[in-house]
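Teaching assistant here, posting this on the class forum so everyone can see the example we discussed in section. The complex has two components, and the goal was to see what a joint structure prediction looks like when all of them are supplied at once.
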Amino acid sequence: MTEAVTAPVRPQFASVADVRERLGRVGYLTDDAIATTVFLADRLGKPLLVEGPAGVGKTELSKSVAAATGAEMLRLQCYEGLDEARALYEWNYKKQLLRIQAAGDAAWDETHDDIFSEEFLLSRPLLSAIRRDDATVLLIDEVDKADVEVEGLLLEVLSDFQVTIPELGTITASRRPFVVLTSNASRELSEALKRRCLYLHLDYPTAEREKAIVLSRVPQVPEQLAEQVVRTVRALRAMELKKAPSISETIDWATTLLALGIDTLDEESVVTTLGVVLKHVSDQVRAVNELNLS
Amino acid sequence: MNPSAGGLLGRQLEFVAALRRAGLAVSSAETVDATRALLAVDLMDRGSVKAAYAASLCKRPQHRRSFDTLFDLYFPARVGDGSDRAAEEAAGLGEDGDGEIDPKALRELLRQALLDGDTDLLERLARLAVTGLGRADGQPGRQSWFTYRVMRQLNPDTLLAGLLAEMLGDEERGGFAEKVARSTIAERMRQFEEAVESEVRRRLAEDRGADAIAKNVVKPLSEQVDFLRASRDDLANLRRTVYPLARRLATRLTARKKVEERGRLDFRKTVRASLGTGGVPLQTLHKPKKPHKPELVVLCDVSGSVSSFAHFTLMLTSALREQFAKVRAFAFIDTVDEVTRFFDPGSDLAGSMARVVREADLVWYDGHSDYGHSFEVFAERYPDAITPKTSLLVLGDGRNNYRATGSAALKDLTARARHSYWLNPEPRHQWGTGDSATHQYVDLVDEMVECRNVEQLTAFVTTLLPG
């Protein structure tokens, strides 16, 4: 169980209110669920798995936590084919080759010990995060894109916060990094991984919060327009679309309208700027039909 | 555990038991985590307690609804009429002299709340309305609360016209502005109705105990919904689950027997391995060969008897089609037609389904399922569809209206295909009963599986071994 772990937890946040206030200061508006879950992940030292549709601010959340706590953020972007050598560590074989050639006639044992030392180790994000002494936020982005084997690797690293390198021995974290895993839920992650994490489902926000987010991200936008944009986006989300617009698209839309000098959303301005919100032609056609735009 | 938390712990255990009954797989480690989380947050803050439980116990979005309902039952926000009644009266919320609630005043407040989108007020009104209007005396000494009593007396739908007029002001009717306003109002009304429902549940739970209510209110999870009985909402939920599955299904069906066949030389790996032999590359290492392009033929029954299932099969087909170019889809009722063209990547699913029904040539004689004729026509008209590289996937209930089964044609098809599978939406014990020709087909395909819900589909996809 987690008690056996040696890596100490050093909480950065004093309370849920503290999370809310400090994330708010770096421009991330939280709600109850987000603030509490971030607080708990920090307090209990457990990895935080954030799932939800694209563009609702999953990656942004970990960046904001890093900014709010003054921690450095390390990022491991997952993709199909990601392996241990890219995620954890690998040996710098080019340099090792040079070393072997330079050794000439020197005894093999000596050379062997030498080429498997710190100097020849290439540290990848997971190992780097564990070796750091300062506050660290480790973002493991889009875990669902990686193969199932990577989940096994993550399980091992994230449950003990230690890594064993056969040639060097076991490296244990001197302080636990704040770990955020994100997933678009394109496939179901393993139960084992989920069990070890705290879970946060980020969905489209409530109308009020979304408006607040738009106003904070695009401060020059008139409140009236922000309200209209949010309402329209919500109406779009209620349709059967391939890709429903997310918060980032709402923000982009508000920015676009502002740049074009449009201060009220009418049929014409919606039709001309719809491409900012809907990225599939079939979705646009459907929206135009259902909203009586044509 | 600190003894003063005994009551809370007891409640938590009941809550976890209810979650498990509702189909959430909560492990004991997670229960321990939940307790730890609970001790870290402010217990007086209900929002935090809920978030703490959600973070440690509910790890799938499709379980969230059950979780919310059960949380409200086991950790209600208030007891009885609620302690903030005084405050509501002070705010002048729809109560006349003798303590009875006046539906008219309440309606007016509701109208205002719907117009402003004031979520707090909507929730408070829901509580007030249930207390005042939703009660009916049942058996002696018992009280019942009903959502329909509240909704009938308040009748929020009739507020729509007024709200629309007010929200639109002098903007033009019938256009885009009206659509958006309608959608906004509908969303708020739904919020109100949900608040009323949850309040009714809370009142009932107070009377009968949370466990009794919990048993009835939690709907089956989307992965357990029967395809043959799925409602519109269920289908929308299913869609979200089916897409990722389709991808896996297609990869499994088409995976190569020998994945380890040699690909191109992997230079990095080879050189790294050579270090063990002093830099001499004794062994060459290769990249895995690229998986070959999938070839999949889907043959699905879209007749009326399986219309919900047909909806699902078309959904699955569309998902498969979207990810793999070499998927050909055929639909049949009593004759067969290729429907691949309706599912071009980028086309709209709802539209595609409508077009299949409207445009594809699926009826030859009377519009009742005829598997035999369909198989024969398929074999005759599309002889090139099935090659030794193809996997054939048949979707249907095998209810053939006592017609000729066409087993010879199917046998020939499956013999030519590399794999053949049949997904049947009927429970296994009904196979072969009545007009079901399942028994004639079951031995012709590699495997026929019962596939009534997403759970079974997942099981099928995961156990399906390439080879």
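For the discussion questions: Chain B touches chain A through 55 residues (CB under 8 Å). Confidence is low (pLDDT under 50) at residues 1-5, 94-98 of chain B. Think about how each of these relates to the inputs above.
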